[in-house]
Structures are given as C-alpha cells and as structure tokens.
Amino acid sequence: MGLKQLRQAAGLIQTELAKRTGIVQTVISKYERGSQSVHNMTLANSLRISRALNCRPDELTDGYPD
C-alpha cells in the first residue's frame, strides 16, 4: 500500500492527517498525487506520517506510483 491507501485504511481524510502530523494538507495531497515524490520526503515528514498511520516509514512508498 502507498500513502493514500494507508491513510484511507486508517479512516482519515487528508485534513485529519495534516492535523495529526503538522504537515500542511496541500503537501500531503502532493505526495498522494505524485506531484511531489514520496521518495524525496524528509525523514521528519516520513516519521510523522508513519506514526500517525501506525506503519513503518518504508510502507509509505509501497505501490508508488498508484
């Protein structure tokens, strides 16, 4: 699963994930759409998102691009 699938599986919308991580919703949207590569995500963002989604950081790139 990639970021979008993990977020959806957690039952979160982008704005909820943004609030939990402190990452702007538009950045999360860019990661999900592929206009900003999840492979170039900062370590800090990777850790924030993986903690919020209860997954490993490397799982965020699985299935990328959709």
UniProtKB/TrEMBL annotation:
<dbReference type="Pfam" id="PF01381">
    <property type="entry name" value="HTH_3"/>
</dbReference>
<feature type="domain" description="HTH cro/C1-type">
    <location>
        <begin position="3"/>
        <end position="60"/>
    </location>
</feature>
<dbReference type="InterPro" id="IPR010982">
    <property type="entry name" value="Lambda_DNA-bd_dom_sf"/>
</dbReference>
<dbReference type="InterPro" id="IPR001387">
    <property type="entry name" value="Cro/C1-type_HTH"/>
</dbReference>
<protein>
    <submittedName>
        <fullName>Helix-turn-helix protein</fullName>
    </submittedName>
</protein>
<dbReference type="GO" id="GO:0003677">
    <property type="term" value="F:DNA binding"/>
</dbReference>
